[in-house]
Queue: 2 jobs
Job 1
Amino acid sequence: MLNKLFWLVALIAVVGIALAEDPDPVSVSIGNIFEKVMRASGPPRSEIMRRPVFAKAHGCLIAKFEVQKDLPAEYRVGVFAKPEYWAWVRFANDGGYGTDKRPAARGMAVKVVGVEGKKILEGEEDALTQDFVMQNHPIFFNKNAEDFLAFVDSAVSGDPEKVKAYNEAHPETQKILDEMDLNFLADPLAGQYWTPTPYRLGEKAMKYMVKPCMDGDNFLRENLIRRMKNQEVCFGFWVQFQKDEKSAPIDDATVKWPEEGEGKFRRFGTLRIPTGQDVNDKAREELCEGLSFTGWHATKDLEPLGSINLARKYVYKRMADIRRRRNGASMKEPSEITPPTENKK
Ligand code: HEM
């Protein structure tokens, strides 16, 4: 009986794998490099396996994600269909666990929980999450997935000739990395964060961005008052649409989309982070290390676009599955968030 059950389970698994889309060779090669990096790296005496990039978390906070009340009906799809949700927000550094004085990209990843509709990541169709993954720079240092593979391949090779050849063929990479290094950030809550890669929004292509709220004419004074009174932190959530393929290409993440006309950022929502949350809470840190943030936790209306995003589909899932299995963390998306009790002073 057990034997039969084994073969039945094996058959279902094989059919399931065959039916799932095969990842392309570029994604698989990037995944192979990332797996090596992830297995080899880790903070000193770490007992858990960390993410291969953006591993140094500063903290995980709960936020309320509110959709703009006057949003036109045509954009009320996917996560924008309901007025509000709770969300996890994870702030992290790329580039190792060392001092924060070392320049490197700062990340902000948001997981909105309670989003209805079938999700696009295979095996997670019933998940209730929509993720937004951002960094504190509007563009990425590689145009597309092939360039990214060539970049990481040369970076991990330890071969100065290979690195030289890559840099000569891709002068834009070092220039953008140098620009990114100039973005000093003293406070993760005061940063501006973008997605350099595009997403679908209904029939259009878009990029999103968050920045601290600048509402009203006196937000500078009001922000001082809020800080002194230890009140909630507020970020605006903004969306810009693709103007045209020439000025705002889908598959070149080194291009900053122009901000005129269709490209002008429009307010789509607000993230409100209540005060009184304990950043050092062990249970919260553990939960957050076990989360997987990926743009592919989305409904079809917000499908990730371009070859970099396609590679990320395979690589994020592969890495998250390996580290979560290894750490004994839940492999499932969260289905609810217990709201924090606000510390009103
Ligand atoms: C092909 C290109 C890329 C690859 C292969 C890649 C790979 C990864 C992987 C494997 C993780 C860890 C996922 C996990 O274990 O849960 C990750 C996290 C992250 N990536 Fe990327 N990434 C790419 C491009 C980008 C871009 C363009 C951005 C810009 C927004 C970005 C921002 C982040 C951030 C902020 C995190 C941390 C998410 C968190 O807090 O969990 N990545 N990336």
Job 2
Amino acid sequence: MEETKVIELLLTAEVYNRYEELTEDDIPKEIRKIFYGKSGISRPLVVKMDTAKKVSKNIDSIKSLPFIDFNEFSKQFKITSFDLAIQWFAKRGLEQIKKNPVLAYYYQNYDSLGVSYEEAKRFNKPKYGDREWLKTIIAELEKNEQTAEMLGLVRIYSPEDIKIDFASIALTDEQIREFDKIEVALERRDYLKEIGVLEVGKLMFIGPPGTGKTTTARALSKRLHLPLVEVKLSMITSQYLGETSKNIEKVFEIAKRLSPCILFIDEFDYVAKTRTSDEHAAVKRAVNTLLKSIDEINLVEDGVILIAATNHPSLLDTAVWRRFDKIIEFPEPPEIIRRRIFELSLSRIKGEFDIDELVKLTDGFTGADIKLVIREAVLNSLMMNMEGLDQKLLVEAIGEVRERLNLKTSY
Ligand SMILES: Nc1ncnc2c1ncn2[C@@H]1O[C@H](COP(=O)(O)OP(=O)(O)OP(=O)(O)O)[C@@H](O)[C@H]1O
Ligand SMILES: [Mg+2]
């Protein structure tokens, strides 16, 4: 029903304006998005014609409802009788009320509709997962020269803009369990703080190139609805004395400003690597700054999940190593993981495949190599004007990728 959508919008605005204790997180995500301005969402919420049009194209019938007034001059909708509107919507919008914390807050004390604010809140995603919310925070940081400079060091993603789903990555049960733990810790931050268990949420991903470390960090941001702050240590390492230390501090500062979020530090061994080459006071200082920054950030108090990734764990010294509460391995994928990657990547492609054979033939391949196999096979099939794939094309593509891998090791 199109009418109920607009009335839900109007009532949500009205109830939100009346009850100061309601927060932006209580407004349903789809409605919240309509109200974002340059500096976030401002009270009171005002519903104009173009606001209403965002939830329904057909709004003329709303104007004739006895509890609605539309001002032709200001183009603004108003509820003229709150009680009537509440009654009208109770009869027609119960399903919407159950999922709308703002409305559930009001309606839980109204008649016996059996709605609960707490229950409704579970349906609603918090605002820090909104692309628009992140934009307003970034716009705020850009206003100040110092913080604007910090933004240049990192890449920031809204979870809404991340394409990769957690479910489309082949992970071991052990890995999945660790990510489940992080999710629970995030939900129970208050409890963990209360009992003083703070050292959670610092993960180190180790493994060879192409095994899914970056992909998993991004997918985790989408799964947990947290913004992702991504930085490569090589990108913030400067040849100028002291700059690297300052940059490291700035990156951690940005993460705290965007909290709750995930801070993903890629090429984590980079600082360690430079240390072994040019033993140099500035580099030592950079490592110390990194250690100190890691110590001074945690999920429970700061809302920051720290994920570091490296291909060269042996380069990291023990001081760095022991600051991470979980080391998550991304090894060269065993058969069971290769099987899963094939299954996932072929699930939307037409054709009959002998996955057992594909798994056998790809010993030593990483996830990235398998993706390359599929891509090659698909392109070859397109060259032949063929729809979908077959086993032969896949086996040939495995051969091509195998040759390429051999080239890499033969020089
Ligand atoms: N376990 C996996 N499941 C699904 N896809 C995978 C897996 N491992 C790798 N891939 C695919 O391989 C590609 C490369 O993965 P990714 O960039 O995450 O690797 P990485 O471990 O970060 O490598 P590097 O150490 O070089 O940064 C991506 O397209 C990803 O989808
Ligand atoms: Mg990577």
